[in-house]
Amino acid sequence: MAKTSRRNESIDELRAELARSRERLRHDLRGLRYELDFPAKFRRSFRQQTVSWLTAAAAVGALIALAPMRKRKVYVDAKNSRKAKKKLVETGFALAALKIAASLVRPVIVELVKSRLTDFAGRPRRKT
Q1: DSSP letter string, 49-105
Q2: Which of 13, 19, 15, 18 is nearest to 5 (CA)?
Q3: pTM exceeds 0.85
């Protein structure tokens, strides 16, 4: 009988140790979740230090806006420039002609599609 009471005692001790371990794990997970909740940290920090956050945002914006831009020199050949302008004008005329042609052909295509769909819808179904 003495052995069974020690055995029960050791089981009770193990259960108590498991309960303590679970409690520590729960506590540690709660702390980890608190530490990793960055949106809440940012909100809390913004509420507590609003002026600092706004000042930092304004400073970063000013740095971006006033940062010296690197100036790049571009050399243009006059002959190539004329050719490029000529091609640009030709492309513009081609696109304008294509737009006019598309607007003239569109009603014909719509009618063709409509007639094909009504013919297809009007046919009786085949039984297979």
Answers
A1: SHHHHHHHHHHHHHHHHHSPPPP------HHHHHHHHHHHHHHHHHHHHHHHHHHHH
A2: 13
A3: no
